[in-house]
Write a structure and sequence with these properties.
The chain is mainly alpha-helical and 88 residues long. It is 81% helix and 5% strand. It has one helix spanning 17-87, and strands at residues 7-8, 14-15. The protein is rod-shaped. Residues 69-81 have a biased composition (Low complexity).
Length: 88
């Protein structure tokens, strides 16, 4: 291949540097589009995970309050029952 001649592509067809450059530009543009779409997907997933985390935190807090509340109530009930026995 001499310096002034067009390069050949994999099909053996002549391709000019301009065509190669345009093809690379198209690939680069597509890569940027794919990257932007991936970034948007990641942002959406992060938002969903944050909402899920908040929901789980609320559920855990309510369960802990329920368990702690029941523990205090049952302990108080036992104290009340023991007082009733002592008073008889």
């Amino acid at each position: 291949m001499s310096a002034g001649k067009d390069a050949e592509d994999s099909n053996g067809q002549a391709s000019s540097p301009v065509m190669v450059s345009a093809a690379l530009g198209d690939q680069f543009a597509q890569a940027l589009k794919d990257l932007a779409r991936g970034e948007q997907t990641a942002t959406t997933l992060e938002a969903s995970l944050t909402r899920l985390e908040d929901t789980l935190d609320q559920l855990l807090t309510s369960m802990e309050e329920e368990v702690n509340g029941q523990g205090q109530d049952s302990g108080k009930g036992q104290q009340d029952q023991s007082k009733g026995k002592d008073e008889k």
